[in-house]
Design brief:
Elements: E1 24-27, H1 33-41, E2 45-47, E3 57-59, E4 63-66, H2 76-82, E5 86-89, H3 93-100, H4 112-123, E6 127-134, E7 137-147, E8 150-158, H5 163-175, E9 184-188, H6 192-196, E10 200-203, H7 204-215
Parallel strand pairs: 8-9
Antiparallel strand pairs: 1-3, 2-3, 4-9, 4-10, 5-6, 6-7, 7-8
Helix pairs in contact: 3-4
Length: 224
């Protein structure tokens, strides 16, 4: 069951005030549940600056990474890997977030404040995990924010080869549960690795124009 938190006391700038060449659109505010949901509904997401004491940073990429649900590239080796794992949803949300936040990971960005904020959003029913298990051991997964037909992927991890990719394949299938409902799988930025899986880029204008229709859609059954 989803719980709508109190509205944020902060107000984000509208697209007319965004720098057309800069992904960074705001700084400051907080990570309260209402603030986070307001940001995602506006196509904005947070990241810490990485420097202690600096304000929180908020981004709306000029070129947004999205994975078309009919565009996921599944190799033969990945098809074989899919038979090795069990898929579960929301049975270990906090463990998935913690694995993604492991400070030993290169380019880690999930600090304790971010971790706590998304754990709280999961308690309220807005953050979900798709997990890969083998022999009753969590070996991979991903988590993200689900609002209507939007799934904003935050991070993924693996402890066995292809375990995070298998979770992504499962997520795509979950989002394809109703062809009549608009869906959008947002991955923030396209990277070479994500591009190899089928992630493409939308202009910020295109992404923001689609967003209201998507978030007004029914939630996928897997996350309802």
């Amino acid at each position: 069951m989803r719980v709508e938190p109190p509205r944020s006391e902060w107000r984000f700038p509208g697209p007319a005030r965004f720098d057309p060449d800069d992904d960074l659109v705001a700084a400051g505010a907080d990570l309260a549940p209402g603030t986070l949901l307001e940001a995602y509904r506006r196509g904005i997401f947070p990241m810490p600056s990485g420097r202690r004491g600096d304000p929180l940073l908020w981004f709306s990429p000029v070129r947004r990474g999205v994975l078309p649900l009919d565009g996921l590239k599944v190799s033969r080796s990945l098809q074989r890997s899919m038979r090795r794992f069990e898929i579960r949803v929301d049975t270990a949300v906090h463990e998935v977030i913690d694995a993604c936040a492991d400070p030993r990971r290169p380019a880690g960005w999930i600090d304790p404040d971010i971790r706590s904020a998304y754990v709280e959003l999961s308690r309220l029913g807005w953050v979900h995990s798709v997990e890969t298990w083998r022999d009753e051991v969590l070996v991979g997964g991903l988590y993200g924010v689900s609002i209507g037909g939007l799934f904003a992927g935050e991070s993924m991890f693996h402890r066995e080869t292809d375990a995070s990719k298998v979770a992504l394949v499962a997520l795509v299938e979950m989002l394809r549960d109703d062809p009549a409902e608009p869906r959008l799988l947002d991955v923030q930025w396209q990277t070479p690795h994500l591009a190899s899986l089928g992630v493409v880029q939308l202009s910020r204008r295109d992404y923001l124009s689609r967003l209201p229709h998507v978030i007004a859609a029914a939630v996928p059954r897997a996350f309802a």
